[in-house]
Design brief:
The protein is mainly beta and 137 residues long. Strands 1-4-5-6-7-8-9-10 form an 8-stranded antiparallel barrel. The N terminus is likely disordered.
Length: 137
């Protein structure tokens, strides 16, 4: 049993082959205003660096900051032709559920957004993209 576990641990990096990597330089935080039916003004605007590393099929995400590393399982891919971006249902390794929006084609402000419920409030975290690349580049 122990040998099997060790093999899985050593093989794990090969299964998480990174197809798309995104580095970010800033995060903004917004809350949903029910009475206005819109997002609030930015509650926080911080210079924070992080990495999003997606596997080849965009079904797994490794999110890394200077303090944490979180893994997400991605499902239910949807493409919005209106906004020209992709969205996914994301479940963290802690069991939290979010909507993940990948908006790299936005020429003015490429970003990745997480939308979810935090302490009974609906929040949006927008990560401003610094660079992004695929393993083919």
């Amino acid at each position: 049993m122990f040998r099997c576990l060790i093999c899985i641990i050593f093989m794990f990096p090969f299964f998480c082959y990174s197809q798309l990597t995104v580095s970010t330089k800033k995060i903004e935080l917004f809350s949903w205003d029910e009475s206005e039916d819109s997002w609030s003004e930015s509650l926080a605007d911080l210079e924070k660096f992080s990495f999003f590393e997606f596997n080849e099929d965009i079904t797994f995400l490794e999110f890394t900051t200077n303090k944490t590393k979180t893994y997400y399982s991605l499902s239910n891919e949807e493409y919005s032709s209106e906004y020209d971006h992709y969205s996914y249902d994301a479940q963290s390794d802690n069991g939290y559920e979010y909507m993940l929006i990948i908006d790299l084609k936005n020429k003015d402000n490429p970003n990745i957004r997480l939308v979810g419920e935090f302490d009974e409030d609906i929040m949006l975290i927008r990560y401003e993209v610094k660079y992004w690349w695929t393993d083919e580049e």
